Amino acid sequence: MKLIFERSVPGRRMSLFPECDVEECLPEVPMREAPPRLPEVSENELDRHYTALAREARGLNDGFYPLGSCTMKHNPLLNERMAALEGFTGVHPLQPAETVTGCTEVIDTLEKYLKTITGMDRVTFQPAAGSQGEFTGLLLIRAYHEARGEGERNEILIPDSAHGTNPASAAMAGYRVVELVSDENGMIDLEDLRQKAGPKTAGLMLTNPNTVGIFDTDIREITAIVHNAGGLCYYDGANLNAVIGLVRPGDIGFDVTHLNLHKTFSTPHGGGGPGAGPVACKSFLAEYLPGLRAVRGEAGSSDTWQYVWEKHSIGNMTGFYGNFLILVRALCYLESLGRDGVPELAHNAVLNANYMMAKLKDIYPMAYDRICMHEFVMNLDSFHEKAHVSALDVAKALLDFGIHPPTMYFPLIVPEALMVEPTETESRETLDGAIAAFRAIYEAMVKNPERVKATPATTPVRRLDEVTAARKPVLKYDFGGAE
């Protein structure tokens, strides 16, 4: 399809805004010498252009989206409608506390729910993403150790199967990353952990279940080893979808955690946001939490609120309470699910993943052939060696079946990895359709591998030069040298 600039015709216009009815008063700052080169199109052409783009986009509303470790699940429209209420959208963060008591109640109620879910004592909603939540949690750990005169603790233990944000966040917080190896079952090697935990250990960052979809059954021993070495335990809540309502991080030895509201708690994510990564912690870390906190006034009235700083706060991570409307969506989601619906969410996520894995493991080698949690990982290294068909080829072939590819080549400890997370919101019929697609691709690999390597054949574009696109992206339109 044509770019919007290629649709442009000099002099073509549309009327979107009325004429300005106030005196223009521009500040005395450097201004453009010439107007920007914007496309000149009619409203009809603009509408058709973006409608055509929408038809070529791929999202959950188009079909199965089993992107492993990302929990790309259906988010109820009800939550979107609640977040669009004028009482939530029409407020300003600098309003006096007594004028936004409804918003404050949302935050207060959601904190109570998240404390119950995580087994923690306090929550901050400032972080605007899971990665920023990780960074916040690590700053809490750093502040704790420094307050105790243990600034020499400068190492964070991180498994080799961790999400990439874990070592990145640790490095940003000024820590040295110490990698822990996984054993043959996909869990932390306890002996390796014992050898690496010591007087320089500030903490452990761990996802459980981990990125290969395995719940580490040694978790209590793992957290005890770190605590006995003087470190703290950080729970990466990215995979909470598998255990929410069933396992509480605070009950299995963790001191601080972040929650991805845009994954587990019903906010559409992808495309850069919006996100929210609230951090929950035990009471001994609460004095370091960032930002202002809304608390009920001393009079005890439900309508009286005041904003306070924690005693030794690490400062602001973002402005005010972060992305507030994401919190509205999360609260609405939890209210809709109720006490019984939350664990049912986890049960169904685990059931769907194990159902798909059981239906495919006779032909697709599983990285860890055991009961999984919310996702499973296939190891296609043997296909690559024998038929020269890669995980990338299988992922591309799925596009011809109307299925978004699963995560490729992650986690890094599994060669030719394909990681599938069906989530709890998909029906058995959808899963059966996806299983049939995987099996059809397998048959094609056996009979005609070149056909698989030539996929996709039905999409608007075929194989792209992804390496060149990443290294030499074209980010602006070439007007052919014209100014």
UniProtKB/TrEMBL annotation:
SUPFAM superfamilies assigned to the protein according to its UniProt record, in alphabetical order: PLP-dependent transferases
GO molecular function, one term: glycine binding
InterPro entries registered for this protein in UniProt: Aminotrans_V_dom, GDC-P_C, GDC_P, PyrdxlP-dep_Trfase, PyrdxlP-dep_Trfase_major, PyrdxlP-dep_Trfase_small
Lineage top rank: taxon: Bacteria
Known EC number: 1.4.4.2
Catalytically driven reaction(s): N(6)-[(R)-lipoyl]-L-lysyl-[glycine-cleavage complex H protein] + glycine + H(+) = N(6)-[(R)-S(8)-aminomethyldihydrolipoyl]-L-lysyl-[glycine-cleavage complex H protein] + CO2
Biological processes annotated in GO: glycine decarboxylation via glycine cleavage system
Presence of the UniProt keyword Phosphoprotein in the record: no
Domain Aminotransferase class V: 151-270
Role noted for this protein: The glycine cleavage system catalyzes the degradation of glycine. The P protein binds the alpha-amino group of glycine through its pyridoxal phosphate cofactor; CO(2) is released and the remaining methylamine moiety is then transferred to the lipoamide cofactor of the H protein.
Protein name as annotated: glycine dehydrogenase (aminomethyl-transferring)
Protein species of origin: Eubacterium pyruvativorans
